[in-house]
Amino acid sequence: MEKRQHWDSRLIFIFAAIGSAAGLGNAWRFPYRAATNGGGAFLIPYFVALITAGIPLLIAEFAIGYKFRAGAPTALGKVKKGWEALGWWSVGVGFVIVTYYSVIMAWVFDYLWYSLSTAWGDAPADFFLNKVLHITSGPGELGGFSIPVLIGLVIAWIAVYWTIRDGVKSVGKVVKWTVPLPVIMLGILVIRALTLDGAVEGIRYYLDPDFSKLLDPKVWAGAYGQIFFSLSVAFAVMIAYASYLPKKSDITNNAIITALANCGISFMAGFAVFGTMGYMALQKGGTVADVAGSGGIGLAFWVYPEAIRLLPFGTVIFALVFYIMLLTLGIDSFFSIIEGVVAGVADKWQLNKKKTTRVVVLAGFVLSLLFATKGGLHWLDIVDKYINDYGVIGVAFFEVIAIGWVFKSKKLREFVNPISELKLGGWFDILLKFITPLALGGILIWNIVQEVIDVTKGNYYGGYPLWSVAVGGWIVAVVLIVASFILAKTKGKETLEEAPEKE
Fold first, then answer.
1. Which candidate, 87, 149, 85, places its Cα nearest to that of 113?
2. Are 450 and 461 in contact (CB under 8 A)?
3. In this structure, are residues 454 and 289 in contact, taking their beta carbons and an 8 Å threshold?
4. If pLDDT is split at 50, 70 and 90, which confidence band does 503 have?
5. Cα atoms in the 13 Å half-sphere on the side-chain side of 6
């Protein structure tokens, strides 16, 4: 049995956790979601969600990973017999995410090269969709591989394997650079954005509070969803990372630092994005809403490149800064998800981690080829929608039930408090046992009801044909759940030490 690795220091662990939590969505999802859901008013439900659900679940994942010294399947299986399947479900969700996340990283690598000449020219949207992706008419037409994407994908997987080849030792060496660097790059972009003409209008669009939005349940659901998606909870990562903590590690403070740093990066990104959008709106004679698009991939690969093109000077420099920021934000999340999968597999069967890493990386690369085809963006869109709406939220809901009710939140507190500076009180029980599952259950039910309403009306997600939504959404969800129970029933090997109740 291999001796379990430990992080070199508390700082390295926190860097790794922040790196996992702060990903591409911080740069392109949070700012747009805030701007279109009440601006500054959105920060109210966002921080309520952080305090009532995000931080409690993060503390819970850190605690069980640290206590049971194992990845998600083994750790949740030790919570109570029969719950191992939930851990495999979270591993499966993470593995599916990494297969398409790797392709987004491939695009970022491509755009680092294109930035040297601002190759997108006067038509960034056309360049991305037709010159880079060579996008087909729909999911039924794969159309072969897009060569630029395929090249970027190979580079992305090689970079990730090189990063995690020696486990937390090599990860620790990388996160010392890849966590501070995007913050520095983001700072440069914020300063540049705020010095542009029209920036004030962009920031006003981003933060101008519309308190009437607080009466809309969709805004609250969006805030809770954003917290869960951006903290890297519920797909096996944080449990695995915490399993490598040395003894007497502070659990509560680590979780709070990670969560607040993640939110700070998101908030900061909004100034860079919308300050620049304000300038772009002024140059094009339109409104910020007109030029900002709908966030997400479009914001990163054609809206922001268009804004960069309009800058009065330094277009190449600021293009490179932007895509270096995206690369360093995304790469940490990318390799952290792989580590969650590797830890789950290696711990269950006591396998050599280096060999397990090679197998997982190879399997992930092969499956990611679907999303590197010319029709890959359609499948990425479908799978991402359903894996997040049902996979991530579903795992998170059952996790808080398993930890809060089955393991008992009071027992968790009694384990965490002796080693943590900030003590958890009875308020934590209320959050983990009642508020968090109610919020998660509400979002899950909301998503299911909306799906049923849309399907009965024949309104399938994204206007895609029914068969593609069924395959990329519903069938993937069912296969993950069935596979989780099969893996849980498969005999493994007795594993690993357990942290003592008190140090």
1. 149
2. no
3. no
4. very low
5. 10
Amino acid at 324: I
Digit-coded pLDDT (tens) for 272-285: 999 999 999 999 99
Token look-up 């300050």 returns: 275
Distance CA 71, CA 50 (A): 24
Pair 334, 107: CB distance under 8 Å: no
Are 407 and 238 within 8 A, CB to CB? no
Tell me how far apart the alpha carbons of residues 297 and 300 are, in angstroms, rounded to a whole number: 5
CA distances, 192 to each of 9, 34, 435, 444, 475 (Å): 35, 21, 41, 40, 46
Tally of residues, the chain: 503
CA distances from 18 to 138, 177, 491 (A): 36, 12, 34
- Residue 135 has φ and ψ, to the nearest 5°, of -65, 140
Domains of the chain: 10-489 (1.20.1740.10)
pLDDT at 407 over 90: yes
Average pLDDT over residues 332-361: 96
Do the beta carbons of residue 339 and residue 240 sit within 8 Å?
yes
Which CA distances in Å does 336 have to 10, 19, 172, 333, 479?
17, 8, 11, 5, 23
257-308 confidence digits (pLDDT tens): 999 999 999 999 999 999 999 999 999 999 998 888 777 899 999 999 999 9
Between CA 442 and CA 53 the distance in angstroms is 13
The token duo for 219 is: 């805004």
Max alpha carbon distance in the chain (Å)? 66
Q: Does residue 494 surpass a pLDDT of 70?
A: no
Distant-in-sequence, close-in-space partners of 223: CB < 8 Å, separation ≥ 6: 37, 42, 45, 46, 48, 49
Coil vs helix vs strand at 312: coil
Alpha-carbon distance of 137 to 376, in angstroms, equals: 11
Contact 263, 22 (CB under 8 A): no
Please give the structure tokens belonging to residue 25.
């969505």
Each residue of 13-30: pLDDT tens digit? 999 999 999 999 899 889
Q: Give me the long-range contacts of 129-138 (CB less than 8 A, separation at least 24).
A: 129/302, 129/377, 132/107, 132/301, 133/374, 133/376, 133/377, 134/374, 135/374, 135/375, 135/377, 135/378, 136/374, 136/375, 136/378, 138/375, 138/378, 138/464, 138/465, 138/468
Query: Using an 8 Å Cβ cutoff, are 251 and 416 in contact?
Result: yes
Query: Coil, strand or helix: which one is 464?
Result: coil
Best CA proximity match to 476, nearest among 377, 406, 384: 384
Q: What is the rounded CA–CA span in Å between residue 315 and residue 313? A: 6
Question: Taking a C-beta distance cutoff of 8 angstroms, is the pair 236, 94 a contact?
Answer: yes
